[in-house]
Amino acid sequence: MSDADHLQRAIALARDSMRENRGGPFGAVVVRDGVVIAEGANSVLATSDPTAHAEVVAIRDACARLGTFRLDGATIYASSEPCPMCLAAIYWSRLERVVYAAACDVAASAGFDDTFFYDELRLEPASRRVPMRQDDLPDARALFEEWKRKPDKTPY
Amino acid sequence: MSDADHLQRAIALARDSMRENRGGPFGAVVVRDGVVIAEGANSVLATSDPTAHAEVVAIRDACARLGTFRLDGATIYASSEPCPMCLAAIYWSRLERVVYAAACDVAASAGFDDTFFYDELRLEPASRRVPMRQDDLPDARALFEEWKRKPDKTPY
Q1: Considering chain A, what percentage of its residues have pLDDT values greater than 90?
Q2: Are B122 and A120 an interchain contact pair (Cβ–Cβ within 8 Å)?
Q3: Does the distance separating the beta carbons of B133 and A98 come in below 8 Å?
Q4: What is the ipTM of this complex?
Q5: What is each CA distance from A95 to A59, A120, B40, B83, B132, in whole angstroms?
Q6: Alpha-carbon span B151 to B148, nearest angstrom
Q7: I need a surface site. Which of A26, A46, A149, B42 has the fewest CB within 10 A?
C-alpha cells in the first residue's frame, strides 16, 4: 500500500468518527514495515477526553499492542497536519516519519485551534494567553538530581 | 491550601512515581475552587504509553471524573514546566491557569527532551528533525467542508 492509500484510510476513519459524533474529522494510522499497527480517530466527544486526538489514540493503541513506549521505524499517517499536542506525542514516541493530508490552516478555517496553539507555544511562558506562573521550589529541582543518580532508571 | 501546597503534592507524586519505576519524576494536580479534582504522575514506563505524562494523566482523570472534555476555571499544578504535548493538552482542555516548579532546562539537564521539542515545534514542518510530508488530498479538505455544514456538531 502506498502513502496515499494509508492517508485515504486515515480520512475514512476521520469521516466515520465525525458522522457518528464521536469527535472532529480527524483520523490516523500507524504503519511499520508495510504493516498497519494501529488506527485512531478523534474521540474527544465520545470519551470526554480532550487528549483523544486521532494521532494520540493511534499512538497509544500501537504502543499497547507492541508493549513498548517507542515506535522507532514507524510512520504515522494523519488526515490533517498534527496539532502541537499530537506532534509532541509523535516526538515522544520516536515515530520516524509523518505524512499528512490537510494543512493546519484548513482545520483552523473550520474552527479548530491548532494554529493558535502553535503560535502560543512559540511565546515565552509569561506572554501566553493562559497565565503561567513559576514557583521554583528546591524540592522540584532535587527530583532531577535524584533521577540523574538513580542506578536503575529507564531513560525514555 | 496555597499554590505552594499543591505544588508540593505534585512533587510528592513525582517522587513516588520515580522511586516505583513507573516513570520520570513528574507529577501534577488539577484543582478547581480549592478542591482537588484529579492527580497524575508520569507513568510512561509502567503503562508503555509515551503520552502518559503527569499533566495528561491528571487531565484525562479530571475529565473522566467530571464527564466533560473542558476544565474551565481549573488550575493545573505541575512539578515541572509542561512539555509541548502537555501544554497543548492544557490548552485543549481549557484549563484556566498553570503553576509549575522546575523549569524546562532543569529537566533537560537530566536528559529529558522538552526544550528540544519546543525548538522543533517552532520550525516549519519541512525543517523539522522528524521528516514531515504533505499530500494535500481533496478528500481531506472535504472533511472540513462537511464539518462546517454539519447541523448537529459539538464544537470543542
Answers
A1: 97
A2: no
A3: yes
A4: 0.97
A5: 9, 24, 25, 17, 11
A6: 8
A7: A149
Burial class (CB in 10 A: 0-12, 13-18, 19+), A98: buried
pTM: predicted TM-score of the whole model, two decimal places: 0.97
Amino acid at A88: A
Chain segment B87-135, per-residue pLDDT in tens: 999 999 999 999 999 999 999 999 998 899 999 999 999 899 999 999 9
Measured in angstroms, the CA of A35 and the nearest CA of chain B are apart by: 19
Q: Which residue has the cell 521539542?
A: B117
Does A156 score more than 90 pLDDT? Answer: no
DSSP secondary structure letters along A94-143: T--EEEEEE-HHHHHHTT--HHHHHHHHHS-GGGSSS-EEE---HHHHHH
Nearest-Cα distance to chain B for A101, in Å, is 5
Ordered strands of the B75-80 beta sheet:
A132-134, B97-102, B75-80, B27-32, B35-41
